[in-house]
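COMPLEX REQUEST
Ligand: cytidine-5'-monophosphate
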Amino acid sequence: MENPVIIALDFKNADQAKSFLSSFEGQSPYVKVGMELFYAEGPSFIKWLKEKNFRIFLDLKLHDIPTTVHKAMKVLGGLNIDMVNVHAAGGIQMMRAAKEGLLAAGANHTKLIAVTQLTSTTEKVLNEELLIKNVDMKDCVTHYSDLAKKAGLDGVVCSVQEAMKIKEVCGKAFLTVTPGIRPSGADTHDQARVATPKEAALKGSDYMVIGRSITQSETPVTTYSEILNEWRDSHENNNFPTFA
Ligand code: C5P
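STATUS: Structure written out below.
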């Protein structure tokens, strides 16, 4: 069974991230590097993680014209990362260009996923600000997921609440990567729509992106193990067994 926990390394520099990871001595969890850390440290930190055998989701959310995204993905594909993403709002042509950029770099193993709608976007913003009218958030997210699937992507970032519907439309092998996870009773911080690891397992999530619940825990390794165990215990009842 594949490990479904991706730890969000939301640290401002490599020293802080390395200090946090040192407590995982002997384990190499799947980690997510976002814009702040990548812009601060660049590819050298990614290379360091790879040397230590960490699996890496590079969360840079590319969104530009297809040619630019193709060239950028060709560079990122050279970093031997395990997962990377684009915004589905860039359209099918842009998403295809992203995939082709990765393939041009020989990064056949790198999963390419799409951000559908940011969890910070409300339905009001969708309708009144972005003028995406007559559609609710769930239908919009499902539609964007369908576009990503048509473009040949491997999956999407979505909330746990949307994962099941996406699996129905895009197939059970289409990956759902879900942030907003909180162990029962934990601080929800600024996340509006949260789910427990158990709910994630039961509702079709393939990977859980978890930041503060682990990074700010007094015992991060124990919290990580507890989350993993809760997911594994619940996953037996999942109707969407997408793992090997
Ligand atoms: O600390 P927390 O568990 O809320 O961190 C969630 C991580 O997932 C953060 O790195 C955040 O940027 C990311 N994320 C998110 N919602 C999205 C996409 C990414 O929370 N829609």
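REMARKS: The chain is about 45% helix and 15% strand. Residues 5-236 form a domain with the TIM Barrel fold (CATH 3.20.20.70).
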